[in-house]
Amino acid sequence: MSDTQQSVTVIGLGPMGQAMVSTFLERGYQVTVWNRTASKADPLVAKGAVLAATVQEALAANELVVLSLTDYDAMYAILGQATDALAGRVLVNLSSDTPEKARAAAEWAAGHGARHLTGGVQVPPSGIGSPESATFYSGPKDLFEAHQETLKVLTATDYRGEDPGLAALYYQILMDIFWTSMLSYLHAVALADAHGITAEELQPYVASALSSLPNFAGFYTPRINAGNHAGDVDKLAMGAASVEHIVHTTEAAGVDTALPAAVLEVFRRGMAQGHSGDSFTSLVEVFKKAVASA
Ligand SMILES: NC(=O)c1ccc[n+]([C@@H]2O[C@H](COP(=O)([O-])OP(=O)(O)OC[C@H]3O[C@@H](n4cnc5c(N)ncnc54)[C@H](OP(=O)(O)O)[C@@H]3O)[C@@H](O)[C@H]2O)c1
After folding, report:
1. 121, 162, 171, 290: which one has the fewest Cβ atoms less than 10 Å from its Cβ?
2. 47 CB less than 6 Å from ligand 1?
3. Degrees (nearest 5) of the Cα angle 223, 225, 230?
4. Contact 186, 178 (CB under 8 A)
5. How confident is the model at residue 290 (pLDDT cuts 50, 70, 90)?
6. pLDDT tens readout for residues 137-184
7. pLDDT single digits (tens) 106-136
8. Confidence (pTM)
9. Domains, the chain
10. Bridge partners of residue 157, in order along the sequence
């Protein structure tokens, strides 16, 4: 390793960690890796990564330690066996979890003399290494700035603030959109399939429906911001009738109605709360009131 070569440790070699290690290697970094299932390191070692024999060794190899794990519990399972090696390390935790878990992890790391940056990667493994991809970061600003150039090797960076929970929060907010949207897509594919329409035949219409959403968000955002849910463009009662049609069409096709039925239940709650003549955006107010779980 030359004096100028930069180096990093990556712990966690799922699809995401593997993509990160490959990208660091391609960019000339010296990369030390560790994974619970050591064999996952084989293709990376073949490309030049160094497999640490122990977690201690992985932590000792570099100041900067990127974690790419299923969740924060996995971090405790791994780093908990090597707390004596944490002092002076910078943990960049790119594992997904809740804002509360991220805040607790930052405190836990500090208790062992390490510093913690929270990250939320917004792209699949194929997006790692692309400047068009982005990752939310939060935690101490000086720490983020000191390591920003290395982090930019993975994706563009979007620093959200000092609170360690912020990156996780932004990530979860976007995942809320991602999973509900993608489930609606899969439900539509199942409904189409019940009528002999293939996913491939449906795809152009799916693309068109999804690409119309930014326009809706663009139109409604200033109104929501101003607390304006006027029913001048659409009415919740109209939306509820539309969702009912989807439930019935789904039922008639013998397809699972759980998803549109859940949507209809929210529309009906909005109507029961007096929003029938308001826009469907009034459902924001319905969502703000938590429903006691059964
Ligand atoms: N994949 C994506 O498309 C994507 C996109 C954006 C963000 N993310 C986030 O990025 C993170 C990593 O993604 P991924 O797809 O690589 O996830 P993954 O496949 O769930 O990653 C698993 C990694 O966590 C390790 N792990 C899990 N539980 C463990 C435990 N109890 N003890 C020790 N190691 C444990 C696994 O070790 P073993 O190999 O030994 O099982 C593996 O290294 C996740 O938090 C994910 O939410 C993923």
Report:
1. 290
2. no
3. 30
4. no
5. confident
6. 999 999 999 999 999 999 999 999 999 999 999 999 999 999 999 999
7. 999 999 999 999 999 999 999 999 999 999 9
8. 0.92
9. 7-161 (3.40.50.720), 170-288 (1.10.1040.10)
10. 135
Predicted confidence (pLDDT) at residue 4 exceeds the cutoff of 70: no
Nearest CA to ligand 1 atom 13: 16
pLDDT value for 67: 98
Look at residue 168 and give its three-state secondary structure. helix
**pLDDT of 294:** 47
Q: Which two tokens stand for residue 291?
A: 């429903």
**List of residues 6+ apart from 96 with CB closer than 8 A:** 70, 71, 120, 168, 171, 175
Q: What is the DSSP string of 92-143?
A: EE-----HHHHHHHHHHHHHTT-EEEEEEE-S-GGGTTEEEEEEEEES-HHH
How far away, in angstroms, is 128 Cα from ligand 1 center? 15
CA of 151 to the centre of ligand 1 (A): 19
Helix (H) or strand (E) holding 242: helix 236-252
3-state class (DSSP) for residue 239 = helix
Distance between CA atoms of 50 and 61, rounded to whole angstroms? Answer: 10
Beta carbons within 10 angstroms of residue 210's beta carbon:
13
pLDDT given for residue 289 in this prediction: 87
Inter-residue contact 140 to 162 (CB < 8 Å): yes
CB of 11 shorter than 6 A to ligand 1: no
Query: Among 63, 54, 2, which residue's Cα sits nearest to residue 29?
Result: 2
**Predicted pLDDT of residue 2:** 47
CA distance 240 to 224: 20
- Residue 274 is which amino acid? G
Give the span between the Cα atoms of 9 and 63, in whole angstroms: 8
